[in-house]
Amino acid sequence: MTAAAVSSDLTMTKEPVSKTFVFYIVPEFTMLAFTSAIEALRLANAVMGEEVYRWRIVSVDGDPVRSSCGLSVSPDRSVAAERSSTRAERPNMIVVCTGWHVERTVDKSVAGWLRQSRNFGISVAGICTGAHILANAGMLAGSRCTIHWENLPIFRETFPSVIVSGGLIESDDDIHTCVGGTASFDMMLHFIEKDCGRRVALAICEQAIVDRIREPFERQPSPLRTLGSVNPLVLSAVQFMEDSIADQTDIAAVARHIKLSRRQMERLFARELATSPSRYLLELRLDRARLMLLQSSMAIIDVAVACGFVSGSHFAKCYKASHGVSPQQMRTQRPRSAYVPSLGRAGSRASLGRMV
């Protein structure tokens, strides 16, 4: 069914809506997450045959902002101008759009604006790594949120009072977060469905060639999600490893968790993943350490402890053997992604289907 057909055929059971979104962008924001959110709103207007949703773009100073892919976006106004909006001009929701190096984009004036907006009853959302900005503004203490998987380890260390999940979308007390990418499209579809009904949301999917609306509780990609069709006992073991990385969990504890002997578990990993449980756990720890080194200024010994290593020297030795450089050298080099360099490593978990 075409958008025009849907528009002419719709018999709304809900009251007509008219909402305004403000998209706040920062340097190195992720274009995919940003445009996915806006395109959902644009398609809603096309399907409905009227301007149900409006939006404007804001940056700290009102100047153009360069995205992570190199394209720049010119905002409509600055945060200061937005903050001085009249009651009639206030948006229904502010969407914080971030990306790589989000910790560099923290701004006190923005934090004050976001808190003030919540006091006015304005909904707030963070996409990709936007939860970092919201947490830094003190808006997520004791609340549930989600964030892109690359940022999960350092986010949990930096904001221990926040309840962070691995799901695609989280909503708590009218503060919404999603992991970015195409999940931004899903989050907007849920808002649109609530406003305009299921038929409108499904018609948008048809227009965008999207096969379904993903549920908020669906988990984002992770080592566990990208292993493919392996034995459920292996999946259970990997989940246990991921959940207890900081606890210096040993392989015997993993074997007890899945109710196998250590020897049985080693044979199972060799058959299913072509590696040993010990090697798999070590690479999990090294992967998490790499994320934390790249995304924070934490002392290297603190990174080692947070990733379950018994000492700084043991961590440094393992890290250099795996990555070819010391933890300090890795931090100095600052590669763009935490996983791209490992794609070519023979025997690495990347060869087992790890997403990048």
Provide structural commentary.
- Pfam families: DJ-1_PfpI, HTH_18.
- By secondary structure, this protein is of the alpha/beta class.
- The protein folds into two domains: 3-208, Class I glutamine amidotransferase (GATase) domain (Rossmann fold); 232-352, Arc Repressor Mutant, subunit A (Orthogonal Bundle), CATH 1.10.10.
- The protein contains 15 helices and eleven strands.
- It has helices at residues 3-9, 31-48, 79-83, 108-119, 130-136, 152-158, 183-196, 198-208, 232-243, 251-257, 262-273, 277-295, 300-306, 312-323, 327-333; strands at 19-25, 53-59, 65-66, 72-73, 77-78, 93-97, 123-127, 144-146, 163-165, 169-172, 175-178.
- A seven-stranded mixed beta sheet has the order 5-2-1-6-7-11-10, with helices on both faces. The chain has a two-stranded antiparallel sheet with strand order 3-4. A two-stranded parallel ribbon has the order 8-9.
- The longest helix has 19 residues, at 277-295.
- Residues 338-356 have low confidence and may be disordered.
List keywords for this structure.
Rossmann fold, globular, two-stranded antiparallel sheet, 2 domains, Arc Repressor Mutant, subunit A, alpha/beta, seven-stranded mixed sheet, INH-QAR, DJ-1/PfpI, DNA-binding, 44% helix, 356 residues
Helix content: 40-55%
Strand order of the largest sheet: 5-2-1-6-7-11-10
| Shape annotation | globular
CATH fold label of the largest domain: Rossmann fold
Say what oligomer this is. Answer: single chain
Largest sheet: 7 strands, mixed
Number of domain units: 2
Give the C-alpha Rg: 22 Å
What is the overall number of helices? 15
InterPro entries: Class_I_gatase-like, DJ-1/PfpI, Homeodomain-like_sf, HTH_AraC, HTH_AraC-typ_CS, INH-QAR
Domain HTH araC/xylS-type: 235-333
Keywords: DNA-binding, Transcription, Transcription regulation
Region (Disordered): 330-356
